[in-house]
Amino acid sequence: MFLAALFIVTLTLAGIVYSLRSARDISARFPNAGELIDVGGFRMNSVHLPAKARADLAPLVFIHGASGNLLDQLHAFAPAFEGRAEMLFVDRPGHGYSERGGRANDRPDGQADAIAKLMEKRGITRAIIVGHSFGGAIAASFALRHPEKTTGLILLAPATHPWPGGIDWYYRLTALPYVGWLFAHTLAAPIGLRRIDSGTRSVFYPNPRPVDYIDKTAPHLVLRPLAFRNNAVDVANLHAYVSEVAPRYQEITAPTIIVSGDSDDIVLADIHSRGLARDIAGSELLWIGNLGHKPDYVVTDVVVAAVEKLAGKPRDLGAAVRFAEERLNDGKAL
Question: 35-82+103-164+201-215+238-329: which CATH architecture?
Fold first, then answer.
């Protein structure tokens, strides 16, 4: 009995050492590209690209999804809007290099409030809020809680409504007290490192993942123990949160455009995207055939056109969607 217990303790300690060493190596491989700013008791990380003299668009704030960090949206959109808008790319609380802060940040509304404070620190009074996936729930909450700061909403494959079924087992396990901490500090890194390639490909499916996506966007950062647990708590809390908040989406008055695909295997677009189009008066749903969960990378041109339309420019979004579908039907991405 003693030897069995000693063996288990030894394996656990070895797992913790491996995970901590992996976290150190991941941070060294993907060092922080942003700046940490205190937003009231904790620091948030962001990359702020100021407007240029020829800027013709409103400021843009980008909110990444689950298991992500600011580099995901940065590499999708910084080249597309360079020189045209002031841009703020945010590591959500507890993700990337942002600190977690208090328990309020376990929910999308708390994270929306933190982003509002960060905008104030960066001198951004109003912006078009762009949210992808889980970031869509935060963007919608931002519009509800901070309408005076919301010029418009761009929601990309958002996760915003109650859905049937549950979540993956490792989210439920990691969100648990004590056991979750142990899992995040022992098994998350070795399992996750083996799934980085297949996992990122599945997020893009049926569209091809860019060949340099992993090296540029650092999905490894979520495998560090604290980030892994924060991510799991976010996902585990989402269903209850959107069940509570979704009935209020009808209060959103900001101009809203939703970009979603009929081949999204990550979120149920029929529930989330069509639900938003139903709930937010005057919103526009751009429904794109053969598009998966990554409109930010696969149909960046459509998102740019959507932002331009919110900025008051005459844009035929139907034509942009048709062009994107023709490209995707030919098996081509941007």
Answer: 3-Layer(aba) Sandwich (3.40)
